[in-house]
Design brief:
This protein is α/β, with parallel strands linked by helices. The protein has two domains: about 130 residues, Rossmann fold (3-Layer(aba) Sandwich); about 90 residues, 2-Layer Sandwich (Dihydrodipicolinate Reductase, domain 2). It has nine helices and ten strands. Strand 6, helix 7 and strand 7 form a beta-alpha-beta unit. The mean pLDDT is about 95.
């Protein structure tokens, strides 16, 4: 069993703790906002080999750096702190730590991005006459809009097409997460959709990534992780 500390005791943190045993992880600490605000220490982590961080944008950078100083690898799923991440990554490398950050841990989204890249290249043909639009829908309490996943998918499509594409962010109800790429021409339309049916998809992916990251050093993405588990 991989010894795991969970930073953030919100809905995702509690879900991670619930699913951890069946994913081969033993939770040594589940830290809420009050505990993380005091700082991360060896005693607080209670022997954890790896940490998963799902907190808030203003706290993520500090928590990742504190874990790196203690030699504890971090899987980070918090979005909205892009401006700080480059400096944090440098800090992690200089500390001989480990970080795997992703805008989403739904592994299907990561693979979906590869499909979006190929489709965006194909539909960029001038004679085809297709415009592109991205629509993302999340639950009403989602803090960032557009989401980190939407920004990632938009970047993928923009690089493939060579120009900016519009993004519409919808916040309503209890939707875990839906991302739709629309290719629209005067007389036809093609839509590519990824729909998360349950928040467990994010927790499951993060737990799998945490088991993989334990014992490693460096900066990683889901490409590194999936390169080891998908052939």
């Amino acid at each position: 069993m991989t010894k795991l500390a969970i930073l953030g005791a919100g809905k995702m943190g509690k879900l991670l703790a619930t699913l951890a045993p069946e994913s081969g992880c033993e939770v040594t600490a589940l830290l809420d906002r009050e505990h993380t605000a005091r700082g991360i220490t060896p005693g607080v982590l209670n022997g954890a080999e790896v940490a998963i961080e799902f907190t808030e944008p203003h706290a993520a950078a500090r928590l990742v750096k504190q874990c790196a100083q203690l030699g504890v690898p971090v899987v980070s799923g918090t979005t909205g702190w892009d401006a700080e991440r480059a400096l944090v990554e440098t800090f992690v490398l200089n500390s001989n730590g480990a970080l795997l950050w992703a805008p989403t841990f739904a592994l299907g989204v990561h693979l979906f991005a590869k499909v979006v890249d190929e489709a965006a290249r194909r539909f960029a043909h001038e004679r085809a006459g297709f415009d592109v639009h991205l629509v993302e829908t999340h639950h009403a309490k989602k803090l960032d809009a557009p989401s980190g996943t939407a920004r990632m998918l938009a970047t993928v499509a923009e690089r493939a097409r060579g120009k900016t594409i519009p993004v519409t962010a919808v916040r309503v109800g209890h939707v875990p997460g839906t991302h739709e790429i629309v290719f629209d021409a005067p007389f036809e339309q093609v839509r590519l959709v990824h729909e998360a049916r349950d928040r467990r998809v994010f927790a499951s992916g993060a737990l799998s990534a945490a088991r993989w990251l334990a014992g490693r050093r460096g900066l990683f993405t889901l490409d590194h992780f999936l390169g080891d588990v998908i052939r």
